[in-house]
Structures are given as structure tokens and as C-alpha cells.
Amino acid sequence: MADGEGLVMWESEEFGSEHEGRPGVLLVDGSEPGPVLFDAGSGPSVHRSRDWWVYDGTLGAPSATELRGACSCGWRGVTAYLIEWDAVDRRRPYLADTSGPEADWESHIADVLSRAVPVPADLTSLLDQIEARLATLVADEPLAALRAAAALERLTQRVAADAAFSIDTVDGPRWSTVAQALGISERAARSRMTRYVHRR
Question: Are the C-beta atoms of 9 and 102 separated by less than 8 Å?
Fold first, then answer.
């Protein structure tokens, strides 16, 4: 998770920490427990974890009965999957089958993408070509690749700043609209827009 309380299981390159996925747990009463705290016994720090396998009823942890997809954005999957603790290898619990929750999280990401503003197909194709060309350049001429990367950084910073200034400069943007278009939270959208504007 983005809060550092557990292992990030699934990631989206485009959305980063805004949409990090993991198997979430449910207790027998259908509630979602908070992180499990582990006191190491020395020093002021206490380890916190939301890894699904720590909710096994041992060492004071609550006992989870089901898994569901969970995302750092707050989304939770509708479908719950029974945890068969007898089939979980306690030495390597992360190898257990969590494909159901993962598939639900992937559907969530697909939904986020479907509501985001589309990038024109010709530009997407051009970006793919640039990435492929730069990959070749890294192998053949790494210093030239670094110069090209620096040029792209300058270009994208200018474009991002100009685009940020172009969004409803009179009354300010509707943050819910901006957030949905970018596929991120309103807080992250504000932060990103502010960062872009200050680069100008």
C-alpha cells in the first residue's frame, strides 16, 4: 500500500500510488479490520501491516475469513473470496492464489481508464515509436539517449504548464472533472496542477 503498511501486490504504471492494489480482507462479521500492529520489543517503532496473510488469528491479529480486491484509492471489490487457511503455505503465503481479487482490481483499473480523458490515437502511436527508438538508442548511444531524454523532459514540462494554465483560468477548474479525466484523486489532481503551474 501507499501508506507503507503492507506489500503492494498489483500496480498500474500510469497511476502509480494512486491505484496500488492488494488483496483486502474481511472478518466474519463483514467488516474490514485496520492494520495489524507488531511490537518488536525494542525502540519506539511499531511495525504495521495490511498484508492479507497476517490476519490469521495468531499473535493477537484478527482472523479473516474472506479476501476481496482493494485499491489505495479507496475502492473495494464487491465479490468476496473464501480464505482456505489450510491451503496457505505459511512460509510463503504470498504465493497463494489471489487471482480473483486481482481480476476485480484490474476491472476497477479498466473502469478508471474508461472514464479518463482519452489520448488521441495518433499521439499514442507516436509516443510508442519514440519509446522504441529511445530503447534502441540506449543500447547503441546511451549518451545521446540522455540528451534526448533531457529534451523530452523540457518539452513535457512546457506542455504540462501550458495545459494547466489553459484549463478554465477564469473561475478555476472543477477538481472532480480534472481528477476523473486524469484517473486520480482530487487531492492528487490539485497537487499535480500546482506542480505544473509552478514550473512555468
Answer: yes
Q: Which amino acid, one-letter code, is at 158? A: R
What is the pTM (predicted TM-score) of this model?
A: 0.84
Q: Where are the beta strands (DSSP E) in 35-193?
A: 36-39, 46-49, 64-71, 81-82
Residue 2 burial class via C-beta count within 10 angstroms: exposed 0-12, middle 13-18, buried 19 and up: middle
186-196 confidence digits (pLDDT tens): 999 999 998 98
φ and ψ at residue 94, rounded to 5 degrees: -70, -10
State the CB neighbour count (10 A cutoff) for residue 67. 26
Positive or negative CA dihedral for 23, 28, 33, 35?
negative
Please give the Cα distance from 36 to 87 (Å, whole number): 22
Averaged over 52-62, what is the pLDDT? 91
